[in-house]
Amino acid sequence: MRWVVLFVCFLLMPVRISTAQRATEDVAPAGSGHEHHEHHGMQMDMDGMVMNENYDQLPRDCDKIAGEQTITVRAGRKYAQQFNGAIFAYDQHEWDVAPCTKVTVTLENEDMVRHQWMLHGLPRYLHPEGMFHVEVNGRGSKTGTFITPGAKKTYLVHCDVAQHMEKGMKAQLKVGGGSGNLPSIPGITAARYPETYAGATGGWKASVLLVLVLGLGLAVRGLRRWG
Amino acid sequence: MFSLHILKIFLFVVLLAATALFVPRTWLPLSLQSRYAAWFGEPSYEPPPGSQKVAIQQAEPFCPDLHPEWRKKQEIEGVSIDESLACTPDNPWAIAAFVKGTNNVSMDTLMKSGLAADAVIMGEDKDGDGDPDAVTIKLEVVELNGRSPDIPEVIPAFFIAPGIQPGLWVFAPKIAGMATKNADTVEANEMLRAPSPVIRVEQGDTVQVVLENTHYFPHTIHFHGVDHPYSHHEGHGNDGVPEANELPVMPGESRAYEFSQLAQAAMHTGHGEVDPGKRRVFTLAPRHPGTMFYHCHVQPQHHIHMGLQGMFVVEENRPNNWVQTLNIGAGHVRHPSVAVREKYVREYDLHFQDIDSQLNDLIKSTNDPRVLEKRMNRQYNITKRSANYFLLNGHSFPYTFRDSLVVVEPNEKVKLRVLASGEDGVSLHPHGHKVKITHYDGVEHNPQAQITRDVIWLSMAQRVDLELNTTNDGLHGTGEGVWFLHDHKERAFTTDGMHPGGSASAIVYRSYLDHQGWPKLQGVDWSLFFTPQYYRREIPVWTTYDPTGMFGEPDTTTLRLGRFVLSGFLIGAFLGGFVVFQLLLRKRG
């Protein structure tokens, strides 16, 4: 399934010749090959991958490439410390970019595990499944480029390693000011299904009940007097 | 005045008697019910309610048949991949990458495998015997059916049976890309499933297992029964026990475990204090072959049962022996080792585990790891555990029939490697066959004393290697068919108490398989078992046995309810009338 989708992506995407990057795999047994793999529309090697890049195809609602912008994103556990209950995060969870702009994203992964900067909602005629993504296999960095469409829109950015978005790696990219905020962005918006932190102890329930009864009593008394 | 009192009591008694007439006979005590007939004569026949019409959902296809082309025998990257007749065979490109190493295959194969380029790194052939003698295997920690703050569904979705999604944690191969099949579904990527993959290495190889903790809790790996040094040559622990040997691998960190003679020689003592963020490797060079076990050793009473456990196989050293480093979802080994092929035609990995959903479903209850820490570590109590799901290779019946059938042909010897890692042990019973136990816990049993039997008890964490001989001699085999292979602990033949379910699979002869790898069955219709409704207990289990509804559920919802309401109303009206009457009398008085 997945490879069928990827295969379609190869057919659709222009061939990208990227500069060979020497992998710095430090746990591989000595002498094991560190090949650099290249494929249509994507780069992949021991360090990670960049998928569905677009550096020259104009989105349909753009007349020309209006400019260039670069974004450097740091990712890791340490950036989650400022958000209670989060485990993984980016150094920033919102970026503003102009429409019809060539955006070059560098993901600097400060953890020892895989992280991604995955953007959803791009035109599907340019990006299979509407996605562009940069993935780094461990500590290190990867850079990729895409072109923003002309419309004002807020795009979802996240890490799709299981539970990384849920535990803090969720962000938004606003093109031309964006079209509002997405839910559950650390430091920006509340979760759509928020934690209640309730029901942990019986005492909590009892005190809510007590306050409820008190409130009702006061209301009845007040109404009577008023009546 | 006095006569008024008499009148009131008289009226009361009359009213009470009148009211009693409205009480349905079935409300009376049994002793009165029999007298009722004596007093009033036999009541006339009233037809009992008919059987309820249960709207049965459309069953899932027994075999989704997603990749028929994956079943055939093929050669990829020079790796021969045996035919797999299962409904859902393993991805042959992934098998090729696991045999050759993700560093030795073409980009095309790598893409089709879905693996990261550094998932399995094969090293040099140091002894010149035609196969690599070093391998690095990277494992991530993946949560299945976890909580999301954005959607009510659990993600990434993994079903053990129709409609059943217990929370799970698994060790998983290092993949590239998304945790789901694609951007438009919450269904888990095919590589991300229970059980944790079977790890296969060659005896004597330098093996590094790198744990890359992608999860939000601390974890380690303990290599149960596998020859490995206590400490890593870099000084940190290598046995996976936080209380004795090493600091746990925290979220976002990684550690390598090693199995190597070199590591033994250079072994340090000490506690393995490691600089934060430094990559840590677990290395092994197992001298002894056999079927072993690996699992997380952080809060093992929870983490093992959450699914952080897998089979670890050390294959005997042979020339030109490229082993299949990982077997996703266990089951059929499509590229068996040289030593196994010397004695057996086929090899199957069978991993039994059990789940208490009260533990596993805690991960669906909160998105805050601190809250989960409390609920799991301090509020859940394993001493009160009672398992309700029983898995074979990550699935329960009927999904076990999609990927964990033991497919055989007559007059073959087949190797079964069995691990029981649940809290309950397994009492494994093959119908129609008696199997020989050749190894216990990775150690060969005295060949003169090997026993052949049809119930094999596996204690918790135990492994046995079995020789299944399909000769029809009335002892080892009794002929071709679809022979159930199941845990004879009867609750393990259920899914949360509903039979058929649990870890049941079957030994199926090839002549009994259709072109999709589905057994040609001659018993009852299985459609019900492919609906979530059946396991929600909404369908009488013998519904398909008899179309007339002989064992359907009586429809008590309509007529009967009306009668009870009428009786209740009349009784209420009479008693109410009495009270009003009483009040009127009092006013007058």
Description:
The complex is a heterodimer of chains A (227) and B (589). With 227 residues, chain A is of the alpha+beta class. Helices cover 16% and strands 30% of the residues of chain A. In chain A, strands 1-2-3-9-8-11-12-6 form an eight-stranded mixed beta sheet, with no helix packed on it. Chain A has a four-stranded mixed beta sheet with strand order 5-4-7-10, with no helix packed on it. The N and C termini of chain A lie far apart (70 Å). Mean pLDDT of chain A is 84; it is low at 8-40. Chain B has 589 residues and is an alpha+beta fold. Chain B folds into three domains: 2-48 and 557-588, no CATH class; 115-344, Sandwich (Immunoglobulin-like); 392-545, Cupredoxins -  blue copper proteins (Immunoglobulin-like, Sandwich), CATH 2.60.40. Chain B has helices at residues 2-22, 30-40, 92-100, 107-113, 261-265, 300-306, 338-343, 357-360, 369-379, 400-403, 532-535, 559-588, and strands at residues 74-76, 79-81, 120-122, 134-144, 168-173, 198-202, 206-212, 222-224, 254-259, 282-284, 290-295, 309-315, 326-327, 331-332, 346-355, 389-392, 406-408, 413-420, 426-430, 435-440, 443-444, 452-453, 456-458, 463-469, 482-487, 505-509. In chain B, strands 14, 15, 16, 18, 20, 21, 22 and 24 form an eight-stranded mixed beta sheet that branches. In chain B, strands 3, 4, 5, 7, 9 and 10 form a six-stranded mixed beta sheet that branches. Chain B has a five-stranded mixed beta sheet with strand order 8-11-12-6-13. In chain B, a hairpin with a 2-residue loop joins strand 1 (74-76) and strand 2. In chain B, helix 1 packs antiparallel against helix 12 (559-588). Chain B is elongated. The model of chain B is unreliable at 261-279 (pLDDT under 50). The interface between A and B is large, with 65 and 72 residues.
